[in-house]
Amino acid sequence: MLLAVTETQWLSPDERAAWVRFTAVLELLPAALDLQLSQDAGMTHFDYFTLAMLSEAPDRVLRTSALAARTNATLPRLSRVLSRLEAAGFVDRAPDEDDRRATNVTLTEAGWEKVVETAPGHVAAVRRLVIDSLAPEQVTQLSAISTALLRQLDPEGRMLATDNDSHEQH
């Protein structure tokens, strides 16, 4: 089967500038968040985000699949992180009593204390690195832009962040 050859629609100078700047943010922001959390709490941003999502769940318990959706993670990635967090005493995993095929993840008291201890520094970093650099209307625009991109990247809406009504604070 021959593929149709199409004309490449190159980026305009303005589009290219926006793309180059956006890719720089994609590279620099995760590293900056990881650095802050590593120095302050000995964990990665994803480790903290996982604990934070559990801290907001009813009874601090979620099925692994629901936690994957809330953290925008694949199940294999989440499983590796949960193994590390479980070894640190921050989470427990157990079969769901109603559906033995499913696994529930529970934030332990030590995990809760880690979130409470870590949250102020993390929020300060988010403010310093992102929020305080933007005018209020730009924060609204950032949310709208992110929602539009997530609709393309996650058309089935599997990730919680894709829900444009979501107002997560982490």
UniProtKB/TrEMBL annotation:
GO BP: response to stress
Designated name of the protein: MarR family transcriptional regulator
InterPro entries per the UniProt record, alphabetical: HTH_MarR-typ, MarR/SlyA-like, WH-like_DNA-bd_sf, WH_DNA-bd_sf
PROSITE patterns with a match to the protein in the record: HTH_MARR_2 (PS50995)
Domain HTH marR-type: start-end pairs: 1-151
Recorded coiled-coil stretches: none
One family name in Pfam for this protein: MarR_2
Species per Swiss-Prot/TrEMBL record: Arthrobacter echini
Any one GO molecular-function label of the UniProt entry: DNA-binding transcription factor activity
